[in-house]
Amino acid sequence: MPVAESRPETHPDFELECEHLSQTVSAMIRQIEFWEDRDRQMGADLETSIILGDQAEEFAALLSPHVHQPYFGSLKVRVAGREQTLYVGKHGFRDVKGPYSVVSWDSEVGSLFYSDALGWTPRRGSAGVIKRRRQLDVHSKKLLRVTDLYDDEHGGDTGGREEVLLRRLQEDSTAGMRDVVETLQPEQNAAMRAPAGTPVIIQGAAGSGKTTIGFHRLTWMTNPDRGVHRARPEACMVLMPNRVLAAYAARILPELGIERVVVTTPEAWATGLLGLEKLEVTDRTLSLLLTDRDNTRRALAWRKAKLLGDARMLDVVRTHLWGKFNAGLAGQSIRESIEVRGREPVTLHFTEAELAAMLRDVFAADPLAGYRAGMRRAIETEALSRLNVPEGEEAGVLRQLSAPLTTFLGRVFASTTPITEARRLLGSAESLAASGLLTDREIQLLLTDPLSGIPTPRRANADVTELPVMLAVQAFTGGIGRLDGRTLEPFDHVVLDEAQDYSPLLYALLGRATRPGHITALGDLNQGMHGYKGPSSWEAVQAQLPGAQVLTLGRTYRSTRQITELGARIAATYNRAAAVQGVDRDGADVQRYVAPADAPHGELPLIAQAVKEAQAAGHKNIAIVTRRGVDADRLAEALREFDTDAQPITTQEHRFRGGLVILPVNLAKGLEFSAAIVASANAQTYDESTEYERRLLYVSASRALHWLGLVSAGELHPLIA
């Protein structure tokens, strides 16, 4: 079917659309000027006038950025026998004096622009029919192009949606993640708008847009249309795998119209919750997997890390704490003389048995704020009830109880800090066995130390594989969630990127820390570089998030056909990506550079050559991807001798600001570049016999949008040769 004509000089409605754009811009400017005119924002008194004026200025500030691009599409709909055209933009606008209004992309009506559905059944009013969908490219208040995506009068689907998509995909990468509001595809739109209040796992191959969709879903969750499920931006959190990617992605949320969302890493969130922001977090299992050639030791480290993240560890921790706190209660009681105004002093007495019963009730209630706060609240509530304290006297009674309660709780919960208690548990066969959930073999595995050869920092540190157990101790003792002042409350919504790298135990903890049904997990089991931390299947995640739906994005949009086919060939070796389809976007052939294994300078001249050829092809944001951080540091220095100056990104403290960079695959993951060059793309670097190594190679080869180079001193890896 032919694509609808989209060139400005030939589309029959181009002039009409130009006029409508001009009038819409004028209407917006009039509205902004009205809001900014303080003299018009008058109330019954000075205070009301000030409030109205401040609100009007806020409305003006929200609308002003959208004057340059009021909308990007339109819908012609027929409802109750009448046709009307609705314009769709990033920000809703109502023209109170004319027909130049805009509906927001994340509204119920805005969804119609992205879907393939032709029927429309609003929550209120009559059903309607979509007559036309139209893309409008607007820049700096000027209409550049009109493309019909669907036109009922001209054969229906025009193929225009694919044309617009391909046009966007031809653009170069940027130094930050871009929004896809204008080009959401139907399957992406459906995943983004999965029912609010339902946990969602979005599985998608590299370049399928899952991370971007997660950010858009979070924006969608803040829309008033979500009702009781609406999320407040300041009460939401996005967890990204590292700080490089967090900085790369963070700017997209303000572009989508929401501010104050916490965008951080699991490690930063965990250490912040533990009150140990200066604690150094290591990943010694990853270090061993990347450097140790002893497969037995690697397998042992992998298995121990998986076990530390097993969801059963939540009850292992709970059972351990139950035993510890009951032991702390032995011989304890509370006896305090309490004065209530107008009465004689009364002795308040709680026996050991009564306190033990309260602790049992607290464990059963499993309060969000943790057992210590729950125990304090239980004793306070029972004291007020026994003494029959009038409401006005409650504060005074609680003040009298404060000191003895604090002393008592200190004795029972003494020395229960998350780090020390987690390590105490993990070092005790008796404590690990108490729950009856772990086998003898698993207990012995937890007591071994396959990482003994990997150095630890001299300063206070914790390993990422230990953190979930430490968080479990924190959740049960001090609580887990979002701290609002001094109050702990659940997050409104949490988005998890690279969800295949989160342990089932961490999912269980995040489920406690978040409103039920308000987790969006984004991942790809094919890219499980940190599989020692992650689930073996999405079913393991669903077990921790009741009712969770798994939605699969079947297309990848990032790369050209040539790059996508190469990635699929690698991923097919572990049998999960064979069905992935790329957009039919043709590009340059994958470039292969091979030097003799004994070449004087190895692969250095070839990497420099690949960089220059990528630059000559017009690419600016280029990545040289290495397997390890030390490789990136070494190459960055050596390449200067070949007139190639690449900015090394070897730690999470570095930021990707565009240009030519060199970085290890674990930091490249999640980023995309106009061109990418895989260094040392051979079987010596990426062991062909190990699935983990093939995963690393897949991630390395799937970073490029338009141009991919593979470099090796000696033969290329068999999967990409």
Structure description:
This protein is of the alpha/beta class. The protein contains 25 helices and 27 strands. Helix 1 (14-36) packs antiparallel against helix 2, helix 4 (186-192) packs across helix 5 and helix 11 runs antiparallel to helix 12 (352-365). The longest helix is centred in the N-terminal third of the chain and has 23 residues, at 14-36. The protein starts with 13 loop residues before the first helix and ends in an 8-residue tail after the last strand. The relative contact order is 0.10.
Strand-helix topology:
Elements: H1 14-36, H2 46-63, E1 73-79, E2 82-89, E3 103-104, E4 119-120, E5 128-139, E6 142-151, E7 156-157, H3 160-169, H4 186-192, E8 200-204, H5 210-221, E9 236-239, H6 243-250, H7 252-255, E10 262-264, H8 266-273, E11 280-282, H9 284-291, H10 295-308, H11 313-329, E12 334-338, E13 346-350, H12 352-365, H13 371-387, H14 394-412, H15 418-426, H16 429-433, H17 440-447, E14 461-463, H18 467-477, E15 482-484, E16 487-489, E17 493-496, H19 504-513, E18 519-523, H20 538-542, E19 549-553, E20 555-556, H21 561-571, E21 581-582, E22 591-595, H22 604-616, E23 622-626, H23 629-639, E24 647-648, E25 660-664, H24 665-668, E26 673-678, H25 691-701, E27 704-713
Parallel strand pairs: 2-3, 8-18, 8-19, 9-10, 9-17, 11-14, 17-18, 20-21, 22-27, 23-25, 23-26, 24-25, 26-27
Antiparallel strand pairs: 1-2, 1-5, 4-5, 5-6, 6-7, 12-13, 15-16
